[in-house]
Amino acid sequence: xxxxxxxxxxxxxxxxxxxxxxxxxxxxxxxxxxxxxxxxxxxxxxxxxxxxxxxxxxxxxxxxxxxxxxxxxxxxxxxxxxxxxxxxxxxxxxxxxxxxxxxxxxxxxxxxxxxxxxxxxxxxxxxxxxxxxxxxxxxxxxxxxxxxxxxxxxxxxxxxxxxxxxxxxxxxxxxxxxxxxxxxxxxxxxxxxxxxxxxxxxxxxxxxxxxxxxxxxxxxxxxxxxx
Length: 227
Known about the structure:
- This protein is of the alpha+beta class and 227 residues long.
- Helices cover 29% and strands 31% of the residues.
- The chain contains four helices and nine strands; from the N terminus they run ααααβββββββββ.
- A five-stranded antiparallel sheet has the order 1-7-4-3-2, covered by helices on one side. Strands 6-5-8-9 form a four-stranded antiparallel sheet.
- The longest helix has 32 residues, at 65-96.
């Protein structure tokens, strides 16, 4: 199995020790897999504890055709419920878990090949202390605010969050991601991180957007509105 295809199994804790170690060695130098791990972590937490579909037991001697059909129908209902649980958990993780969907691209504006483009109402900033630079695009949606972000000049390894605060003081994590050791938008690794997420806070009610590390250290404030 290719290291890139091990992302889901690693997030779910399903890899054997040699495969886990090999994947972590690969992860240290692969920004694509690092972003995917950040995306899958909330979903993995929701899926843990969901029982897999069990293989039907062998039919006992003397089982009738009716018994066989009943057992198979029950197994199919079990399988259907399990698949529905997986789908629901995936949807919850994407909507409520602050999952970012992103790619690394050498362009600061989403070059050809990038599946995410920073669009909408744009806000840009560079932090004088950390040197981190970014542009965020905001689009009003019926469910809240779609957020896209271009991040550069950030050094890893770090685990980061984009945090939104409403005009009433509500705090929401818009998305989270891992910054590999090579970083983003640096001389030795010029690719920017282009990432997409969303928040339930309406666009008109956004007071601030900031990039923080998970331990609360601020890296960059992209939007501040006095209220």
